[in-house]
Amino acid sequence: MSSLKEFRCEICGTVSENPIHWFVIECTDQKLAVIKWDLTAAASPTARHFCGEAHAQTYISRWFESVCVPPPKHVLKAI
């Protein structure tokens, strides 16, 4: 007996049992990895799923905004 697994896009909520052309993103606050659709990667508990390149890019942009802050002014003056 096989079981079908559904995946939901993190951005738009689209659900698919056959996520062709989807992307998986694994990330922490220090590292982000983009993976072409792979069922093993997608099944990871830390995986995020995206229905296409545009939604993966949206997530990546939000990730950069959340972790990238300008350096303190004293660091800029030292350069």
Task: Describe the model.
With 79 residues, this protein is of the alpha+beta class. The chain has helices at 39-42, 53-67, 73-78, and strands spanning 7-8, 15-16, 23-27, 32-36, 47-50. Strand 3 (23-27) and strand 4 form a beta hairpin.
For the termini, the CA-CA separation is: 63 Å
Residues in helix, %: 25-40%
Gyration radius, to the nearest Å? 16 Å
The tally of structural domains comes to 1
Structural class: alpha+beta
| Overall pLDDT | 85
Low-confidence stretches: none
What is the strand and helix layout of this fold?
Layout: E1 7-8, E2 15-16, E3 23-27, E4 32-36, H1 39-42, E5 47-50, H2 53-67, H3 73-78
Antiparallel strand pairs: 1-2, 3-4, 3-5
Q: Keywords for this structure?
A:
single chain, 3-stranded antiparallel sheet, alpha+beta, 79 residues, two-stranded antiparallel sheet, globular
Précis, in short:
32% of the residues lie in helices and 23% in strands. By secondary structure, it is an alpha+beta fold. The model has no long low-confidence stretch (mean pLDDT 85).
